[in-house]
Design a protein that fits this description.
Strand order of the largest sheet: 10-9-8-11-12-13
Radius of gyration: 24 Å
Number of strands: 13
Strand content: 5-15%
Largest sheet: 6 strands, parallel
Bound molecules: uridine-5'-diphosphate-glucuronic acid
Number of helices: 19
Amino acid sequence: MIGAGWVGFIQGNVFADEGRKVSFVDVDQDKLRLLKAGHCPFYEKDLEPMFRRSYESGRLSFTDDLKQAVEQTDGAFICVPTPPQADGDSDLSYVERVVREVAVAAGTREYPLIVKSTIPADRFRDLEKIVKDTPGSQVDLGSNPEFLAEGTAVEDCQLPSRIVIGVRNGGATRGFLEELYEHHRSGGTPFFVMSPEEAIMVKYAANVMLPVKISMANEVALLSEQLGCNARTILNAMGADPRIGPKFLHPGPGYGGDCFPKDTQGYDAMAKRLGITSNLAQAAIRTNARQRWHLFNRLTDYFSRRQETLAGREIAVWGLSFKKDTNDLRHSPAIAFIDQMLDAGGRVTAYDPAAGPEGRKRYADRIAIVDSAMAAVMGAEALVIVTDWKQFVGQDWEEVRKVMKHPVIFDGRSLLNPMRMAALGFDYISIGRPDALGAK
Ligand code: UGA
């Protein structure tokens, strides 16, 4: 696995758990030191015990020596980052460097090299050209996109919804991947073989389709607020149509994470290069940018109706990560909200079940990050729920009501029951549902 980042590390550990020997190649010396000492670098459900098993049985190795790793293995996956550039296009310099180095390291050996990093479909040929320009190289490039979601990544690898491989005819990669995934194939997992460009497009189009779906839900939520309707009622009934389906129809503070924001931009940039305007990717990007202001706007409206501003106000924030069950802050709507709040002069005390340390690294002492949900609401003039952690639901709400200075809840994930919250004396405002105002 070339690149022991989140994708490479998790997929590599699943391969090792299936009994294979896996070599992780990375340039980050600090990470290599930690890995060699047996430290699991990522927070992900079920990962740590799986890593421990393989580590202790000696199936894992860690190195910065790519040449040696290539010499000792039957094939490699490229899992290095493809960060977005200012114009939305992906920076492929890491991937290109790996292809160049592997092409040299493999000499004249037929060697499968599979791209897992998400790259634009029209750039695959550029990678093949690097191989072609390396004298004598028999590297066979393929594509095998990943469909892992954070929080369920181990399970997504172990029980994939589908396996997509992109290969050229006659190369070594097809056989290598078919053998690697044989147990899935024979177990009935849909297995698709296609060209590398088509395989990449499966991933890219899925990562535009899902943001479009979420954006639809978010737009219905905004309309529902104006109509005095409950968006959940509408979306549940809409999702009961099997052609639409109920998943990814939950309104919220906007989608985040490392994938959807990056891939919608990358797809849009690719479409432009191909002379096509991607109306859909652009609509998702625009809708999401607007949605990321929605919670903040609801707070501003609420306080301005009371002739108050946000400056100096004590705001409790539950959730820092971009979704539940991860400590990942990348493009997190919670971070967007906190930044908006700080710019407006608000004072933030935040709690997250997993991402506290990452939050402290990001904000230092600009916000307070506490170790319990209850500590965050002490003396708060508003509670804002941004991340959908399950444990936020089962709080002692009477106690929360008692310790807050002003009892208003802005629920970005519609986790709570509006009538119940109002009956407890809260003003309760959620996305896409009528406000429920508590008795004063
Ligand atoms: C996403 C895809 O779901 C994976 O299939 C894909 O492999 C991965 O990107 C990737 O490209 O590597 P992930 O970013 O981990 O996975 O998270 P999701 O569960 O898809 O959630 C993304 C964002 O959408 C989160 O901020 C989440 O809260 C938000 N979301 C999701 C909604 O606002 N509403 C929904 O109904 C669903």
